[in-house]
C-alpha cells in the first residue's frame, strides 16, 4: 500500500502558523489599505483553486483595487509575473510582509492565510472560498481527529471572517469545520467554475482535447486507509475495456492523486485508448473539466462542479460502507450522486454506452442535484466579487 503522510500537511500548516505568529501581533498596530486585496492558495506555493480565478477576475474587471497573489515558490512566482503581470509576491522579505499586513482584505482557498498566525481577521476581512464542495467531513468534524489537528483548527478559527458555501446543504459542514457562527457561512458560487464553459478566456494556453473523440475523465479519490482500486471489478478485462473504448470512439483519461501516479499498474497503463492525465501534463484540472463528455468518480467533489455542465456522470463507490465509516459524508451520498453505480465491468460498459448515447438518461436527476448543490450557476466570479463588496460594507 502506498501511504500518504497524513501529518505532512499539518506540519506545513504548523510551520506557517508559527512563522506568522509574530506578525499577527504586529498587525494590531498597522493601518489597513481599503483598496488592497491579497490572495493566496495552498501553503502559499500554488496558483490554483477559486483564489486563482477570482484573482484573475479582479485584474480584468476591477482595476480600482490593488491586488496581489502570494507565491512562495520563487520559480513559479517569476513565471507568473511574466505570463500574467507583476502581481505576484512572496513573504520572504519584511517589505512584502508589511505590504500584505496592510491589506484590508485577504482571500484564500485553503486554511492557510497569506501570512500565518492568529487573529488575522482583526480590522481585516478574510474570505475563505474553498477548493471544492465539502462532500466529506472536514476540519473539527473529521472522524478520528487527533489532538494536534484539533488544536490547530482551534487556533486558526480567529483568522477568518466568512466562508463561502455553494449550497445550504454544505453550510453546516463549513460551520462545523472550525465551529463557526451561522452568519460566517454565506451562499456563493465557485469562481473556478467559470472555466467550465467555452466562453472563458484563460491567461495562458490551455490543453485542448482532440476533436472528433468522446473524452471520458476517470477521477477517483485517494484513500488514507487503503490503495484506490482502479476499475474495481471482479470481472475486469483490460483488453475488453480497450476494445470498447476503440469501438465507441472514446479516450479515457485517468486522473489520480499525484502521490499515487507511480502506483498505476502496467495492466491499466496498457489499455488501448487510455491516457494518464498526470499533474505534469495538466496542473489545474478545472481548466479542461468542461471539455469532457462524461465524468467517472467515486467520492470526489469534482462531480459537484461538473454538475453545472449537465453532462453525464457515473459513480464507482465500491467501498462505500468502509469509506462512510472511516471518513464520513456530509450529505446523503446515494441521493446526491445522479448517475448509475455499476458493480461489474459488464454493467459498467453498458452504463457508459447509455450515458454517452442517451441525453435523457439520468438528466432529471442531474438537474435536481445541480439545483440542490449549486445555488449559483453562472457568472460565479462576478457573484463572488459582488458578495465581497457587499460584506465589506457590512
UniProtKB/TrEMBL annotation:
Keyword presence, Nucleus: no
GO molecular function: CDP-glycerol glycerophosphotransferase activity
Keywords: Cell membrane, Membrane, Teichoic acid biosynthesis, Transferase, Transmembrane, Transmembrane helix
Record membrane topology: Peripheral membrane protein
GO cellular component: plasma membrane
Family to which the UniProt record says this protein belongs: Belongs to the CDP-glycerol glycerophosphotransferase family.
Name listed for the protein in its UniProt record: Uncharacterized protein
Source organism (scientific name): Vibrio casei
